[in-house]
Design a protein that fits this description.
This protein has one domain. 21% of the residues lie in helices and 32% in strands. A 3-stranded antiparallel beta sheet has the order 2-1-3. The longest helix is centred in the middle third of the chain and has 13 residues.
């Protein structure tokens, strides 16, 4: 297997879609909250990619984080599937 896995392989091996909303403010405007939304594949409960991203943010970005909300979906499989028992023909 190659060193870089496809999104499907990453999902198959336990990573799920992580959506992160970061509320932050710039030091010059501490009363003005702004929002940044970021999505990636990550594995719960470690969230290693999120930790790397937040480390980068704290080192490289002057914006101060106010709060973070995360949503994580680790289910892989069909969504919304149901069996149709009747068919209708439109003329």
């Amino acid at each position: 297997m190659s060193a870089h896995k496809s999104d499907f392989e990453r999902r198959f091996y336990g990573e799920g879609l992580l959506t992160t909303e970061i509320l932050y403010y710039m030091p010059d405007y501490p009363k003005l909250l702004q929002s940044f939304t970021w999505q990636t594949l990550d594995r719960a409960p470690e969230f290693a990619r999120l930790a790397q991203f937040l480390d980068h943010w704290r080192r490289e970005i002057e914006a101060v984080i106010h709060s973070i909300r995360i949503a994580h979906a680790d289910y892989i499989g069909p969504s919304g599937w149901r069996n149709a028992e009747e068919f209708f023909t439109k003329n």
